[in-house]
Amino acid sequence: MSRQQRRTLDETLQRAPHPDGPAPIEAMRAGFAALMGSFAVPTDVRREPATLAGRPAVVVEPEGEPAPGTILYFHGGSFSLGSPDTAMPLTAQLVRRTGVRAVSLDYRLAPEHPFPAAIEDGVAAYRALLDDGATPGSIVVAGDSAGGNLAVTTTLAARDAGLPVPAGIVAFSPALDHTRSGASMTTKEGIDPFFRRADMDWMGAVYLGDQDAAQPLAAPAVLADLTGFPPVLLQVGTNELLLDDAVRLADRARDAGVDVVLDVTADVPHVFQAYAGTLDEADEALDRAALFVTQRLRAR
C-alpha cells in the first residue's frame, strides 16, 4: 500500500486553487477538459469515432483481436462537462486490461439538456447495441462520477422499459443521490480535495433543472428499487463527499438480493483510478475492475 503516494497526492490536490464560486459553463468545460487532458492515456489501444443511437461516440479497442463483449462507458463531469475524450484515461485502461472493446458515449449535457436527457441517451445507446445483435450478457455498463450514476440509472431505466439488464455494472466514485442526504456530504467537507457541498448543490441544480431530486432516477442510492439488477462493482475513496452514495447503493443492492462488491480505498480522492501509473491503489483498483468485467462477461 502506497501511503506516501496517497499523502503526497492529497497534499498536492489540497494546495491546488479552487474557484470562489460557479463559473460560466463553457469556462468550466474548458477547465475540465484541460484537467483530464493532463492524465496519461495508454498508447496500446485504437480509437475510432462512431455514432451510437444518433449520438457521437468513440470506439476503443485493444491492439490485437478484441475479446468478446462490449463495455458501454459513460464519462464523468457532473452531467454538464466532459466527453469521451475526457474519460479516455479510464476507458483505455479498462480496454487494455480486459482486452474488451469499449464504446464511450457522448451523451447530451446540462444545462442545455437537463435531467433525464443523459439517461435517455444511455438507454437508447444500450438498446442500439442490443438491436445490432449484442446479447445483454455480452455488455457491461461502466462509468465514472456522473458516468457512474448513468451506468446505474441507465440500467434502472432500461429494466423499467422492459429491456433485459446487462451482464454487470462498474461505477467509479458514482454520484447517486441528488438529495445530498449522505452523512459524508458533511463529514468529508474540507477533506475532499475536489468538491465542496455548495459546489455540488449548484451543479446538481444545473443538471436537474426544475425536476425534483427525490425520485429514483435522481437519487438511486436512497430511492431506487434494484430488484433484478445484475452484479454491481462500486469503487470509492474514503476522502470523498460522495462516499456514502456508493455505500448506500451497495446496501440497497444487497437488500434486493443483488450481487454487489463495495470496494473502498482509504485516503484517496474522487475517481482516483485516473492516477494509474502514479498511484499504486489506482492500478490495483483498475485490475480489480478488469477482473470483475471479464468474470461477468464469462458468466453470462
Explain how this protein is built:
The protein is of the alpha/beta class. It has a single domain (3-299), classed as 3-Layer(aba) Sandwich (Rossmann fold), CATH 3.40.50. The chain is built from 10 helices and 8 strands. The chain has an 8-stranded mixed sheet with strand order 1-2-4-3-5-6-7-8, sandwiched between helices. A hairpin with a 2-residue loop joins strand 1 and strand 2. The chain starts with a helix and ends with a helix.
| Poorly predicted ranges | none
Quote the distance from N terminus to C terminus.
Answer: 34 Å
Helix amount, in percent?
Answer: 25-40%
> Can you tell me the CATH architecture?
3-Layer(aba) Sandwich
Rg on CA atoms, Å: 17 Å
Strand and helix order: HHEEEHEHEHEHHHEHEH
CATH class: Alpha Beta
Report the β-strand fraction as a percent range.
15-25%
CATH superfamily, by name, is: Alpha/Beta hydrolase fold, catalytic domain
Mean pLDDT: 95
Q: Given the helix and strand composition, which structural class is it?
A: alpha/beta
Q: Give the biggest sheet.
A: 8 strands, mixed
Number of DSSP E strands: 8
Describe the global form: globular
How many helices? Answer: 10
- CATH topology, which one? Rossmann fold
Give the total of domains.
Answer: 1
Main-sheet strand order equals 1-2-4-3-5-6-7-8
Layout: helices, strands, pairs:
Elements: H1 3-15, H2 25-36, E1 45-52, E2 55-62, E3 67-74, H3 88-98, E4 100-105, H4 117-131, E5 139-144, H5 146-160, E6 168-172, H6 184-187, H7 197-208, H8 220-223, E7 232-237, H9 243-255, E8 260-265, H10 280-299
Parallel strand pairs: 3-4, 3-5, 5-6, 6-7, 7-8
Antiparallel strand pairs: 1-2, 2-4
